[in-house]
Structures are given as C-alpha cells and as structure tokens.
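Let's practice the habit of predicting before peeking. Look at the sequence and jot down your guess about where helices and strands might fall. Then scroll down.
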Amino acid sequence: MACAESGCRMGDHGTGNAWDGSAPHSCPAPRPSGRVARGGVEVQRGFGMSEKQGNERSAGKGTLQRRARQKLYHRRQILDTALRLFSEHGFHNVTMHRIAQESEFSIGTLYNFFENKEELYRALVLDLCREMESALSDALSGPGEEDQLIRAYLEAKGRILMNNVPMLRIYFAQTRGASLEIMSALDQEVRAMYERFLRRLAKVFSSGTRKGLFKKMLKPYYMAVALESITNAFLYLWLEDPDRHPYEKNIRDVARLFLENIKAGPEGGRS
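Done guessing? Here is the structure:
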C-alpha cells in the first residue's frame, strides 16, 4: 500500500531496515501541485511563481518582442532610404545627415543603428547577399532531378537580380571605386557566403554525375564555377544595356546550352 501524496509504501513508515540498521523512513512532504483554483477550475502555473508574476512575465516578453520588431522596421526604413539616395545621387554625394533627414529620424537615432555611411552600405550589401544565398540554396534543395534544380537556381537568381537592380549598380560602382579600407572586411564576408553557395551548387553537379545524368567533364566545383561565371558575365551585359542584352532570355539560352552539353546519354551533346 502506498501514501496517497508521496507514493511511499506504508510499511516503510516508522521502521528502519533490519539488515543494515538504517534510520526509520519518514514520508517526504507532498510537492505543490502547481495548480490554483479559479472559478472552481484548477489552472496550472509555474512552481514558485504567482499568477500575477506569470502575467507580468508574459507582458514583459510581449513588450520586448514589439520593441525588437519596431527596431527591425526602423532599420529597414533607414536602409531603404539610403539605397534610394545612393541610387539617385551616388554613394559619395550622400551624407548621414541627408539620410537621417529623408528617413525622418534624428541623426542620433541614425548613429545608434550605423556607425557611419560605410557601415550602412555594408549592411545593404550583406542583406542582399544573405537573401540571394537563402533563395538559391532553397532552389537547389527543391524536388526534381539535378538538371531541374540547376534550372530552378538560374530562374531564382534572375528573379533576385532583377528585383535588386539599384543595389547591384551601387555595389558594382563601389567595387570599382571604393578604397581598400571600405571593401576589405566586406569582401571577406561576401566571399565566404559565395564560397558556401559554390560548394552547394557543386554538390548538385556531383550528385548528377554519380547518377549518370551528367558527363564527367570537370570536377563538380569547377562546373559550378563555370556556370556562375557565364551567368555573371550576362549579368554585367544586362546592367550596361538591358534592352540589348535581356537577362531573362539570355539566361534561358545559357541553361539550355550548358545543360545540353553536360548531359550524358542521347539527350546530351556530343562528347
């Protein structure tokens, strides 16, 4: 038979162990259930915390979450304003005071988000790179055979680039004209993200080659580099003259020519 509260056997109470001389057993005090009555219904609450304290903690978390969302929203406002001004007037012709004025924040608030104009530019570039890395990785992780994944990657890349033309123009202009101090740290982060993506693309080529879908023409990593180099070359042409070099059409042609030449079997090109 057991205690209703603790689960101890009744025979254990008041007696020791005859074999080892242990002290008599005493039943531990029952633990609080963590429930409180409310209108005749028991409601669970945390141990050691009153109902009022629980409500206050929940309210505090909600306030912190709202503040975090508001901070992200204000950061986005500043970045969008800076991007517009950089696009219209050029990076070197825009001041932090102008960005604060146009985004309707005080200069002090602006400096709470970004130390200087270079830091703001760096945030713009990294945000775009992270967006690209996420979208292209998702495309390469989707359903379908490896050739379908490569087509999906090319389509996703085209969509992102066409939706971010102002930022791309600023980036390429700054890459050509920026000082080493501005670009060195940024280059390291961008290169690290790009390297991760190249290796992910290489895995798709490696998988397709193992399955016999692609020919063993190059190492998978070099196949990834080759495809990226071709698509980037057409990107530069498109940015210089969009009407003469439409990226979407050219990239479809690139996909067709590239895949036809690496595919194994009767559908592929000649070895």
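How did you do? Residues 1-7, 9-25, 36-47, 177-183 have pLDDT under 50 and may be disordered.
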